[in-house]
Description:
Blueprint: H1 10-20, E1 29-32, H2 38-49, E2 55-59, H3 65-70, E3 76-81, H4 84-97, E4 102-106, E5 119-125, H5 131-137, E6 138-149, H6 155-161, H7 175-185, E7 188-202, H8 205-214, H9 227-237, E8 238-239, E9 242-256
Amino acid sequence: MTQRHMTQQPDFYSKVANKFGGYSSGARRTTLFPQGDPEEVFDAVARELGGGGTRLLDVGCADGRNLLAIAPRFGQVDALDLAPEMLDSARRHQTESGLAHVRFAVGDASATGFADGEFDVVTSRRGPLFPEEFGRVLRPGGSLVYLGIGERDVRALKEEFGRGQLYGRWDGTPVMRQDRERLERAGFSVVREQSVDFDEYFHTPQDLDTFLQMVPIFEDYGTGGDREALDRYMALATHDEGIHLARHWFVLHARRDGL
């Protein structure tokens, strides 16, 4: 299956880092989580797996802000991304955090270069999923925590544009199920899976435009070239709360078999 998330798109994320100084644009929005915040679910599972000298590998770390929030629970942390500019931002955040036990490096998640069984936990937050490689670097009984993008994510927006990440996949097998099956074939047992729908309301058209420039929903998004499609979408999706995007993410927690 073609990988679809961040560390497999280094040029896109380098461009984002150069423009915004990291993976945060400052686009104003209000987010509602009727089923809970998937980022908080991911963080809670990861933190529960930490403690003592637990060794963590994070792939697709981007600017490192999310990783650094959970890093104190682990004794050793290695983080990989293919975009050097994102890692420059990550190291700046690391300096501010004072967390000296985190090591950021340019690296390919499909071939990390680490030894067999070197880590207790692997995390990937909207990043790539390479079950065989992640299983190789995990010790037997080690855990993978994965935050993925679901097939229904911003479907109405993609339909208006006629393209986008996972375009047209909403009528097929759910991505979470496909990823679970990939993990099971690679020797993992999935112990938790949770699909989460939530809503974002962008305060102004400029906020939505800025957001779309920094996320890979459309890697080729352009303010000028896509203005007509964006205007059509906003005419349909603008409410009192703002311009609505319907989001769909999921969390998988899997253990490597072998104990």
